[in-house]
Design a protein that fits this description.
- This is NeuB family protein.
- InterPro entries: AFP_Neu5c_C_sf (IPR036732), Aldolase_TIM (IPR013785), PseI-like (IPR051690), PseI/NeuA/B-like_N (IPR013132), SAF (IPR013974), SAF_AFP_Neu5Ac (IPR006190), SAF_PseI/NeuA/NeuB (IPR057736).
- The protein has four helices and five strands; from the N terminus they run H-E-H-E-H-E-E-H-E.
- It is elongated, with a radius of gyration of 19 Å.
- With about 130 residues, it is of the alpha+beta class.
- Helix content is about 25%, strand content about 10%.
- It has two domains: about 60 residues, no CATH class; about 55 residues, Type Iii Antifreeze Protein Isoform Hplc 12 (Alpha-Beta Complex), CATH 3.90.1210.10.
Amino acid sequence: MADLGEITEAVKAAQDGGCTEVALLYCVSGCQAPAADCNLKTLADMATHFGVPVCGVEYGRKSDEVANVKSRRFLYFVKDIKAGDAITKDCARSVRPGYGLAPKHLNQVIGRSRAAGVEANTAVTEGHLA
């Protein structure tokens, strides 16, 4: 259930860590998937894009997988921040479910100043890093 950005990040992390034999698995999460859900052309596309072997079937999230993505952790502001205030560690937290930036981006958020205020319980997005 990874998107293109997450796959790119995983391949880069493996290669940066010294892995010289990377392969991607492209899987259908449901059994007896209809042929229309398999999108086999994506196997060749992924192999070309990443330059690694790809095997399996299915690419992207089906409608029944969207709920699983919502159960991942995301960054949220947990207290109000006034315009001009710096974002501190106690301002943002990794929570689920939700949408927003992944927790790995917390260090990019901490220390930033907000041109506009932000209310508590707001998902941290790329726009908050601008």
